[in-house]
Amino acid sequence: MISFLISIAALVLGYLIYGRVIERIFGPDDRKTPALAHPDGVDYIAMPTWKVFMIQFLNIAGTGPIFGAIMGAWFGPASYLWIVLGCIFAGSVHDYLSGMMSLRHDGASLPELIGKYLGKAMRIIMLIFSMLLLLMVGAVFVYSPALILAGIGGNEKMWFIIIFGYYIIATLLPIDKIIGKIYPVFAAALIFMAIGLFVCLIIKMPAIPEIWNISSMDTWMTAQTHNGTDLLGMKAYLTKNTLFPAMFITIACGAISGFHATQSPLMARCLKSEKLGRPVFYGSMITEGFVALVWAAVSSWFFYSSGWRDVLPQDAVNEFLAQVGNTDGKTLIQYFNPPAVVKLVCSSWLGIVGGILAMLGVVAAPITSGDTALRSARLIIADFLKFDQKPIAKRLMIAVPMFAAVILLLIWQQANPNGFNVLWQYFGWSNQTLSVFTLWTITIFLHKYKKCYWVTLIPAIFMTVVSATFIIQQIIG
Q1: The pTM is what?
Q2: Which residue ranges make up each domain of the chain?
Q3: N or C terminus: which one in the chain shows less Cβ crowding within 10 Å?
Q4: What is the 3-state secondary structure (H, E, C) of the chain?
Q5: pLDDT per residue over 329-388, tens digit each?
């Protein structure tokens, strides 16, 4: 696990060294923050720093760094490089500077910032683009938790209604009433899960592929065969999903994610001081990178070192092997989806506590991504229309049509057999494309104020190439 441990150390150093560099480039000062300048008791509320950090972390994390890292394991140890370099030099910079720009512009939402620095036409485009992304997040993250909960009790429709009812409450009530109280608990659970698995990895010290094995992954794949059949299915997967650009779209939240820039303004309206921006914005992204690295190592053990055999009872192992090679047989990649990997590993390594944490991870985390997505959508529309959000009536004027749109997406998703996969695919691409617009906006901002803009120009160019290449491949392919 040398590559894994070096990657963890690199993240810590990234926060301590490069995080300080980015902070000095921006130059936080003692001016009043939006929360102190004009609190409204709904969205502009000064909260304790630790609570703002926990909410920001859960806002941007959810299941993203877990599921993305597990699927990213199919690209081998190259995922370590992307998580570390992406997180330090792109994702954390993206999150910190977008959050600080919002602070400097009275808690402005992303489309407003983009409009100010890229023009009014781009403001309209990004308003539409952001709204589509956030509504897709709301729809996607109702669907998967409802399916899981229906397997425990009740039915899908019942859980759709319950989760959506929670969305309505969390979107409309003041941020400190629901989100401010339950988010720190779920965030702590997510961090505790990652730390617990990290300790288990240190104790087990399994042999897993290293970064220097990237060019010789055939050895690891050959070890995963049964009666001459490839169990991993990695070659077939990589034929359809080339490392560039697919890996950079698959692993988003653990490296860089445009969705984060829609969330940072929520916490920019709750900070007491600009100088708290680095631990809140940069620090929460580094923490998310840690979670992603842990799951990248765990999934590497699961898929490449026969970890799946260790966490399954023998009859389940035999059941999987029995269908290998059949016409409709599934590979390890197809058979064990990310929620299944989370549940199996946590229950096996962390016992009863792990099972509870796994449930929180695959159910609560996506729900908490969905509610803040819709809250962000409400605020983005309010900023655009200049609607004061203190009166509940004006919140409802925006929220009701928005909820109706999400319901229509849910109905379509259920009626279409491949609806979830289609939404997720477009969500992944639009997520990274949004990071492109955000990075270019920050670059213009830094250039305008004669600050070092290369720190965002280079990531902006790289992510532009990634997003453009991916969508071209989808159109041609």
Answers
A1: 0.91
A2: 2-476
A3: C
A4: CHHHHHHHHHHHHHHHHHHHHHHHHHCCCCCCCHHHHCCCCCCCCCCCHHHHHHHHHHHHCCCHHHHHHHHHHHHCCHHHHHHHHHHHHHHHHHHHHHHHHHHHCCCCCHHHHHHHHHCHHHHHHHHHHHHHHHHHHHHHHHHHHHHHHHCCCCCHHHHHHHHHHHHHHHHHCCCCCCHHHHHHHHHHHHHHHHHHHHHHHHHHCCCCCCHHHHHHCHHHHHCCEECCEECCCHHHHHHHCCHHHHHHHHCCCCCCCCHHHHHHHHHHCCCCCHHHHHHHHHHHHHHHHHHHHHHHHHHHHHHHCCHHHHHCCHHHHHHHHHHCCCCCCCCHHHHCCHHHHHHHHHHHHHHHHHHHHHHHHHHHHHHHHHHHHHHHHHHHHHHHHCCCCCCHHHHHHHHHHHHHHHHHHHHHHHHCCCHHHHHHHHHHHHHHHHHHHHHHHHHHHHHHCCCCCHHHHHHHHHHHHHHHHHHHHHHHC
A5: 888 888 888 888 888 898 899 888 888 877 777 788 888 888 888 898 899 899 888 888
